[in-house]
Design a protein that fits this description.
single chain; 167 residues; two-stranded antiparallel sheet; binds zinc ion
């Protein structure tokens, strides 16, 4: 998504743009992301004394693999961000102001970054997903099994090893 700086300067009211952006390759970077729909972005841009102010709202829809039961599930993602830009190299270093070389501001890297931040670290199909049985592998959300999956306290496990050494 590109904004033309002179157009922002000329605009009396903040410039509003809406676009649908296809982000390529995000699925390859995020293991549990199966599919990412195009991102619907609405930006508002204005300029004041050589400083460009951009506010973006974005939403999309994604398919993930649940990290507990491995089933696919869908989720809406949305977020917003604000960033300032300048086309003057001497000001760009200050206060995390983005530098724009030339007349065109490319917002796609910022949109992509915001989507990556919205992605859950360990996505789950629902908060109380019971996951797969570690012994027989059934999906415990759908079936129950009679496996003994009682957890051994790690401290007890150490005791057991002490009492019954392998050799
Ligand atoms: Zn699940
Ligand atoms: Zn089982």
């Amino acid at each position: 998504m590109r904004l033309y700086l002179p157009e922002i300067v000329r605009a009396v009211e903040p410039l509003v743009r809406e676009e649908s952006i296809e982000l390529k390759g995000v699925e390859k970077e995020v293991p549990q992301l199966v599919r990412l729909d195009p991102v619907r972005v609405r930006v508002e841009a204005s300029e004041e004394s050589g400083l460009f102010h951009v506010h973006a709202e974005q939403r999309t829809h994604a398919t993930f693999t649940c990290s507990r039961c491995l089933s696919p599930f869908e989720k809406d993602l949305s977020g917003e961000w604000t960033q300032e830009f300048t086309d003057r190299a001497d000001r760009a270093d200050q206060d995390e102001i983005g530098f724009v070389e030339g007349d065109t501001l490319d917002l796609t890297p910022y949109i992509r970054e915001a989507v990556l931040l919205e992605l859950p670290y360990a996505p789950v199909c629902r908060e109380d997903c019971k996951g797969l049985c570690p012994v027989c592998g059934v999906d415990r959300n759908r079936e129950s099994c009679s496996c003994n999956t009682e957890r051994i306290d790690p401290r007890l496990a150490v005791l057991k090893e002490l009492q019954f050494p392998e050799n």
